[in-house]
Protein backbone atom coordinates (compact mmCIF):
# COMPACT_ATOMS: atom_id res chain seq x y z
CA UNK A 1 0.00 0.00 0.00
CA UNK A 2 2.84 2.40 0.80
CA UNK A 3 4.37 1.78 -2.63
CA UNK A 4 1.04 2.63 -4.28
CA UNK A 5 0.66 5.86 -2.34
CA UNK A 6 4.17 6.93 -3.28
CA UNK A 7 3.50 6.16 -6.94
CA UNK A 8 0.18 8.01 -6.86
CA UNK A 9 1.81 11.08 -5.34
CA UNK A 10 4.53 11.04 -7.99
CA UNK A 11 2.01 10.76 -10.83
CA UNK A 12 -0.17 13.50 -9.36
CA UNK A 13 2.69 16.00 -8.98
CA UNK A 14 4.26 15.31 -12.36
CA UNK A 15 0.98 15.37 -14.25
CA UNK A 16 -0.38 18.68 -12.93
CA UNK A 17 1.62 21.68 -14.18
CA UNK A 18 0.58 25.25 -13.33
CA UNK A 19 -0.35 28.30 -15.37
CA UNK A 20 -0.84 32.01 -14.68
CA UNK A 21 -2.51 34.94 -16.42
CA UNK A 22 -0.47 38.08 -17.01
CA UNK A 23 -2.91 40.97 -16.83
CA UNK A 24 -0.56 43.69 -18.05
CA UNK A 25 3.16 44.30 -18.52
CA UNK A 26 4.94 47.55 -19.34
CA UNK A 27 8.45 47.23 -20.78
CA UNK A 28 8.41 50.67 -22.46
CA UNK A 29 10.07 49.17 -25.54
CA UNK A 30 7.23 50.22 -27.83
CA UNK A 31 4.84 52.15 -25.60
CA UNK A 32 7.49 54.50 -24.18
CA UNK A 33 9.38 57.35 -25.77
CA UNK A 34 10.91 56.70 -29.17
CA UNK A 35 14.65 56.99 -29.75
CA UNK A 36 16.23 59.92 -27.89
CA UNK A 37 12.89 61.74 -27.59
CA UNK A 38 12.17 63.44 -24.26
CA UNK A 39 8.90 64.58 -22.74
CA UNK A 40 8.37 67.69 -20.60
CA UNK A 41 4.67 68.04 -19.75
CA UNK A 42 5.20 70.95 -17.34
CA UNK A 43 4.86 71.52 -13.60
CA UNK A 44 1.96 69.66 -12.01
CA UNK A 45 0.98 67.99 -15.28
CA UNK A 46 0.89 64.21 -15.77
CA UNK A 47 2.51 62.64 -18.79
CA UNK A 48 0.43 61.17 -21.57
CA UNK A 49 -0.54 57.56 -20.95
CA UNK A 50 1.90 54.75 -21.72
CA UNK A 51 -0.08 51.63 -22.62
CA UNK A 52 0.83 48.11 -21.51
CA UNK A 53 2.61 46.20 -24.26
CA UNK A 54 1.67 42.65 -23.31
CA UNK A 55 -0.76 40.66 -21.18
CA UNK A 56 -4.53 40.33 -21.32
CA UNK A 57 -4.91 44.12 -21.15
CA UNK A 58 -2.19 45.08 -23.62
CA UNK A 59 -3.11 48.34 -25.30
CA UNK A 60 -5.70 49.27 -22.67
CA UNK A 61 -4.01 49.27 -19.23
CA UNK A 62 -2.17 52.57 -18.85
CA UNK A 63 0.64 54.25 -16.91
CA UNK A 64 1.92 57.78 -16.41
CA UNK A 65 4.27 59.91 -14.34
CA UNK A 66 3.41 62.98 -12.26
CA UNK A 67 5.76 65.64 -10.87
CA UNK A 68 4.93 68.76 -8.90
CA UNK A 69 7.80 70.67 -10.55
CA UNK A 70 8.55 70.61 -14.27
CA UNK A 71 10.34 67.32 -15.02
CA UNK A 72 11.86 65.78 -18.12
CA UNK A 73 11.03 62.18 -19.02
CA UNK A 74 13.35 60.06 -21.16
CA UNK A 75 13.97 56.44 -22.21
CA UNK A 76 17.45 55.25 -21.19
CA UNK A 77 18.44 51.57 -21.16
CA UNK A 78 16.16 49.22 -19.29
CA UNK A 79 17.17 46.28 -17.14
CA UNK A 80 18.51 44.07 -19.92
CA UNK A 81 16.50 45.86 -22.60
CA UNK A 82 16.79 48.89 -24.84
CA UNK A 83 14.41 51.14 -22.92
CA UNK A 84 12.96 52.01 -19.55
CA UNK A 85 11.04 55.10 -18.43
CA UNK A 86 13.04 57.71 -16.52
CA UNK A 87 12.40 61.15 -15.03
CA UNK A 88 14.33 63.86 -13.20
CA UNK A 89 13.31 66.76 -10.90
CA UNK A 90 11.84 64.64 -8.12
CA UNK A 91 10.17 66.14 -5.07
CA UNK A 92 8.46 64.35 -2.19
CA UNK A 93 5.08 63.01 -3.31
CA UNK A 94 5.93 62.67 -7.02
CA UNK A 95 5.00 59.27 -8.44
CA UNK A 96 4.65 56.66 -11.16
CA UNK A 97 1.12 55.31 -11.57
CA UNK A 98 -0.27 52.20 -13.31
CA UNK A 99 -3.95 51.50 -13.95
CA UNK A 100 -5.61 48.22 -14.93
CA UNK A 101 -8.70 46.10 -14.31
CA UNK A 102 -8.69 42.96 -12.17
CA UNK A 103 -12.26 41.97 -13.10
CA UNK A 104 -12.66 38.21 -12.82
CA UNK A 105 -9.18 37.81 -11.34
CA UNK A 106 -7.77 37.04 -7.88
CA UNK A 107 -4.56 35.80 -6.29
CA UNK A 108 -2.46 38.58 -7.81
CA UNK A 109 1.26 39.29 -7.74
CA UNK A 110 2.98 42.49 -8.83
CA UNK A 111 6.62 43.08 -9.75
CA UNK A 112 8.77 45.78 -11.32
CA UNK A 113 12.39 46.86 -11.73
CA UNK A 114 13.48 50.25 -10.39
CA UNK A 115 16.76 52.13 -10.18
CA UNK A 116 18.15 55.66 -10.26
CA UNK A 117 21.18 57.90 -10.45
CA UNK A 118 23.27 58.85 -7.41
CA UNK A 119 21.41 62.13 -6.89
CA UNK A 120 18.03 60.59 -7.71
CA UNK A 121 15.45 59.76 -5.02
CA UNK A 122 16.21 56.74 -2.86
CA UNK A 123 13.08 56.01 -0.81
CA UNK A 124 9.80 54.89 -2.39
CA UNK A 125 6.58 53.17 -1.35
CA UNK A 126 3.92 51.25 -3.26
CA UNK A 127 0.20 51.77 -2.67
CA UNK A 128 -3.08 51.11 -4.44
CA UNK A 129 -6.52 52.63 -4.88
CA UNK A 130 -9.81 51.07 -5.99
CA UNK A 131 -11.82 54.33 -5.82
CA UNK A 132 -10.19 56.29 -8.59
CA UNK A 133 -7.46 57.78 -6.43
CA UNK A 134 -9.64 59.26 -3.67
CA UNK A 135 -7.65 57.20 -1.15
CA UNK A 136 -4.69 54.84 -1.25
CA UNK A 137 -3.72 51.80 0.81
CA UNK A 138 -0.05 51.03 1.46
CA UNK A 139 1.44 47.76 0.19
CA UNK A 140 4.45 46.87 2.30
CA UNK A 141 6.77 49.52 3.70
CA UNK A 142 9.14 52.13 2.31
CA UNK A 143 12.06 50.62 0.38
CA UNK A 144 15.35 51.96 -0.95
CA UNK A 145 16.29 52.06 -4.63
CA UNK A 146 19.76 50.85 -5.69
CA UNK A 147 22.14 52.87 -7.90
CA UNK A 148 21.74 52.27 -11.63
CA UNK A 149 23.93 49.75 -13.47
CA UNK A 150 21.35 48.90 -16.12
CA UNK A 151 22.26 48.25 -19.73
CA UNK A 152 20.65 46.70 -22.79
CA UNK A 153 22.62 43.49 -22.22
CA UNK A 154 22.08 40.89 -19.50
CA UNK A 155 19.41 41.80 -16.90
CA UNK A 156 20.85 42.68 -13.52
CA UNK A 157 19.60 41.20 -10.25
CA UNK A 158 18.88 43.19 -7.11
CA UNK A 159 16.57 45.77 -8.72
CA UNK A 160 13.22 43.96 -8.61
CA UNK A 161 10.39 44.73 -6.21
CA UNK A 162 7.88 41.87 -5.88
CA UNK A 163 4.62 41.90 -3.92
CA UNK A 164 2.15 39.11 -3.19
CA UNK A 165 -1.21 40.91 -3.19
CA UNK A 166 -3.15 37.99 -1.71
CA UNK A 167 -3.75 39.80 1.58
CA UNK A 168 -5.48 42.71 -0.18
CA UNK A 169 -8.77 41.07 -1.12
CA UNK A 170 -10.38 44.31 -2.32
CA UNK A 171 -7.92 44.36 -5.23
CA UNK A 172 -9.54 41.19 -6.58
CA UNK A 173 -12.26 41.49 -9.21
CA UNK A 174 -12.09 45.30 -9.32
CA UNK A 175 -13.08 47.29 -12.40
CA UNK A 176 -10.13 49.64 -11.93
CA UNK A 177 -7.06 49.47 -9.70
CA UNK A 178 -4.42 52.20 -9.48
CA UNK A 179 -0.93 51.22 -8.35
CA UNK A 180 1.20 54.18 -7.29
CA UNK A 181 4.96 54.25 -6.63
CA UNK A 182 5.67 57.40 -4.63
CA UNK A 183 8.85 59.29 -3.72
CA UNK A 184 8.73 59.44 0.08
CA UNK A 185 11.42 61.98 1.02
CA UNK A 186 14.32 64.14 -0.18
CA UNK A 187 17.10 61.59 0.48
CA UNK A 188 19.12 60.64 -2.59
CA UNK A 189 20.57 57.25 -3.45
CA UNK A 190 24.07 58.46 -2.55
CA UNK A 191 22.83 59.57 0.89
CA UNK A 192 22.66 63.29 0.17
CA UNK A 193 19.75 65.41 -1.02
CA UNK A 194 17.88 64.69 -4.24
CA UNK A 195 19.20 66.89 -7.05
CA UNK A 196 17.27 68.48 -9.89
CA UNK A 197 19.06 66.31 -12.45
CA UNK A 198 18.79 63.17 -10.32
CA UNK A 199 16.75 60.47 -12.04
CA UNK A 200 14.59 57.47 -11.23
CA UNK A 201 13.95 54.70 -13.77
CA UNK A 202 11.25 52.06 -13.90
CA UNK A 203 10.94 48.99 -16.13
CA UNK A 204 9.13 45.65 -16.50
CA UNK A 205 6.09 46.55 -14.42
CA UNK A 206 3.83 43.48 -14.44
CA UNK A 207 0.68 42.27 -12.70
CA UNK A 208 -0.13 38.57 -12.94
CA UNK A 209 -2.12 35.85 -11.21
CA UNK A 210 -0.56 33.27 -8.92
CA UNK A 211 -0.10 29.97 -10.83
CA UNK A 212 -2.93 27.48 -10.23
CA UNK A 213 -3.50 23.93 -11.51
CA UNK A 214 -5.01 23.85 -14.99
CA UNK A 215 -8.34 21.90 -15.01
CA UNK A 216 -7.40 19.72 -17.98
CA UNK A 217 -4.09 18.68 -16.47
CA UNK A 218 -5.75 18.05 -13.11
CA UNK A 219 -7.94 15.52 -14.93
CA UNK A 220 -4.86 13.83 -16.39
CA UNK A 221 -3.41 13.70 -12.88
CA UNK A 222 -6.51 11.96 -11.55
CA UNK A 223 -6.47 9.46 -14.43
CA UNK A 224 -2.82 8.79 -13.68
CA UNK A 225 -3.61 7.97 -10.08
CA UNK A 226 -6.44 5.65 -11.15
CA UNK A 227 -4.14 3.84 -13.59
CA UNK A 228 -1.53 3.45 -10.88
CA UNK A 229 -4.14 1.97 -8.56
CA UNK A 230 -5.28 -0.60 -11.16
CA UNK A 231 -1.69 -1.61 -11.84
CA UNK A 232 -1.03 -2.02 -8.14
CA UNK A 233 -4.13 -4.18 -7.63
CA UNK A 234 -3.10 -6.52 -10.46
CA UNK A 235 0.22 -7.14 -8.78
CA UNK A 236 -1.42 -8.22 -5.50
Features:
alpha+beta; 236 residues; 31% strand; 2 helices; 6-stranded antiparallel beta sheet; 2 domains; Jelly Rolls
Outline:
The chain has 236 residues and is α+β, with helices and mostly antiparallel strands. Helix content is 14%, strand content 31%. Strands 2, 5, 6, 8, 11 and 13 form a six-stranded antiparallel sheet that branches.
Describe the structure.
This protein has 2 helices and 14 strands, in the order αββββββββββββββα. It is an alpha+beta fold. The strands form 3 sheets. Strands 2, 5, 6, 8, 11 and 13 form a 6-stranded antiparallel β-sheet that branches. A hairpin with a 7-residue loop joins strand 9 (123-129) and strand 10. Residues 2-17 and 216-223 have low confidence and may be disordered.
Strand content: 25-35%
Number of helices: 2
User: Largest sheet at a glance?
Assistant: 6 strands, antiparallel
Question: What is the H level of CATH, i.e. the homologous superfamily of the largest domain?
Answer: Galactose-binding domain-like
Structural topology:
Elements: H1 2-15, E1 18-19, E2 22-26, E3 50-51, E4 62-66, E5 73-74, E6 85-87, E7 95-100, E8 108-116, E9 123-129, E10 137-144, E11 160-164, E12 177-183, E13 200-209, E14 212-213, H2 215-234
Antiparallel strand pairs: 1-14, 2-13, 3-4, 4-7, 5-6, 6-13, 7-12, 8-11, 8-13, 9-10, 9-12
Helix pairs in contact: 1-2
Amino acid sequence: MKKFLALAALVSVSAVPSFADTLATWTFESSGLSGSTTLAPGAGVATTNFLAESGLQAGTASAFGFHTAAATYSSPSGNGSTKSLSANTWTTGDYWQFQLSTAGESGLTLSYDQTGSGTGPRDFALSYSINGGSSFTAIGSTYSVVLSTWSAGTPMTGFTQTYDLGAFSDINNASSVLFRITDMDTTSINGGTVGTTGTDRIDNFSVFTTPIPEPSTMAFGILGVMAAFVAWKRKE
